Structures are given as C-alpha cells and as structure tokens.
Amino acid sequence: MRANDGEFRGLVEQHQSMVFSIAFRILGDRGAAEELAQDVFVELHRSLGRLESEEHVLFWLRRVAAHRSTDYLRRRSLRPEFMAEEWTEQHCRHVDGRSFDAVAVVTRLEEMVLSLPSGLRAAIVLRYQEEMTPDEIARALEQPIATVKSNLQRGLVMLRRKAKSVLKEFMRER
Amino acid sequence: MSDELEQELKEGLRRVPAPDGFADRVMKRAARKERLRIRVMPQRVSYVWQVAVAAMVLLAVLFGVGEIAQRREERRKAELVEHQFDVAMRVTGKTLSGVGERISKTGTKDERGEQ
After folding, report:
1. Contact present, A42 and B26 (Cβ < 8 Å)
2. Residue B21 contacts A where some CB pair is shorter than 8 Å
C-alpha cells in the first residue's frame, strides 16, 4: 500500500482512537499510551509499503498496538493497582457527555480490567473494545486459539468476582 | 451474569478519543524520521560501496593465492613426472645394457660352436 502525506494523515485520523484506546486500556497511563500510539503510527509510516489493503492496515495496527503495550508493561513491570488509581483521575477528565453515575460505573469497570494480568487484559480489550473474535485475537496476539479462549474465560471469571465486590461497594456508597 | 457482564464490558470499553493534536504530532514525527532516513541514506550507500570494494579486494587476494597454490601444485607434479621419467629411463637403460651384454655373449658362443 502506498500513501502520500494526506492519505497517511487520513489513516492516522481514522485509526487514532482505536490505537490510543488499546494502548490506554492496557497501560492505564494516558501519557505512555499517547507515546506508544505515536510510535505505532510512525512504524506504520515506515511499513506501509508492505501492507496490502485497508483491512491489512487495521489488523496490523491492532496487532502492533497490543504487542507493544504488553511489551511496555513487561519492560516497566508496572503494577496494575498503582495504575488503577491514576486511571480514575485521568479518565474522569476525558469522558464527556455521560452522567456522573455512568462515568463512575464505567471507570470502576475499567479499573477492574486494568487489574487483570497483562496477557488476559490484552485479550479482554481486543474482545470487548474492538469486538474481535477469539480467532482474530489469536492471530493478532500470535497465540494458539485455545490460549486465547482460556485467557478470555479466566479474565471473565476474575472480572465477575471483582464485579460482585465492587458493585456491592458502589451501591453502599450511593 | 456472564452475559450481563459481557454486555457491560462492551459498553464500558468503548474507544476513547485520542488526545487533541495527536495526528499533527504523528505527522511531525513521521516527517522527522523520513528526513533522517534520507540524510542517512548516502552514508549507507558509501558504506555499501566500501563493503563492495573490500569484498572485491578480498576476492582478488583469494584468487591470487589460489592461482599461486595451483601453479605450485602443477610444478610439483611436473617435477614428479620428470623424476619418474628419469627413473624409468635409468631402468630402461640398465635393462637394455643387460640385454646387449646377453646378446653379445650369445653371439660369442654361436661363433665358437660353428668352428
């Protein structure tokens, strides 16, 4: 695929929210997510000649964003508990047009996702944010489909457990 | 519970907008990288040439060494053949002189017998 500056800018504008959201939800840090998302697009600019179609670009962006995010976590060994605190504060500033209650529920849900181990988190983000099938996730993360299915199941079990206690706490607060 | 949670996740994990000016920052970084790549390219080309020249010199040296070794081997074979020829000639000479002596002895006997 070839693209001049205008076309490349079009690709960035089309996919920036997706790439940034994948990085943000896996890292839980707005600054790191932006830097990582920029890196992904700069790499796309260099690799565009090897990509064959718009679908290929979409697949490539999801794959590279997820891989780089989990690699980043591995390198920094960030603690999810610590990030969850940052996330609440940062995220509340950027969710517009929703009631406080809705924002609070969503934020708690996102905190719960953020507290999952990075491997499970990547699978959950791709499954529920990007609505990818387990097969697509397996190809994107270069993992066997059985591993992806097991990660999704384990992630849901952990989230369900957390949801029970978090929602109880939330209702008490209300 | 699972369906409910999955539905909550789909709704809760919607994409969030990228920060303002994100695309501008990406375009600037991509342009900077591109300029750097173009600036680095001539150096790379000259590096490629240097490697090519070094490879040619190395090939020439290897070829020369091979040539010398081959000539030396040919000379050694020629000397061996020469030596074998000398030995063969010496053996042949001795044999011929032995045969000559025997012929001359036989000739003397025949002459005596005729008398």
Report:
1. yes
2. no
Low-confidence ranges of chain B (pLDDT < 70): 1-2, 39-44, 109-115
* pLDDT at residue number A89: 47
| Sign of the torsion formed by the C-alpha atoms of A134, A138, A141 and A147 | positive
- A156 reaches B (C-beta below 8 A): yes
**Cβ contacts from A onto B, under 8 A:** 87
What's residue B43's pLDDT? 67
Cα A124-A139-A2 angle, rounded to 5 deg: 110
ipTM of the complex: 0.75
Cβ–Cβ gap A109/B1 under 8 Å:
no
> Tokens for B10?
């789909």
CA–CA separation, A114 and B9 (whole Å): 12
| pLDDT at position A74 | 86
Distance CA A150, CA A145 (A): 8
Number of Cβ within 10 Å of residue B112's Cβ equals 7
Give how far Cα A36 sits from Cα of A43, A57, A119, B34, Å. Answer: 11, 17, 18, 19
- Quickly list DSSP for B61-72: HHHHHHHHHHHH
A109 to chain B: which residues are within 8 Å by CB?
A: 8-9, 12-13
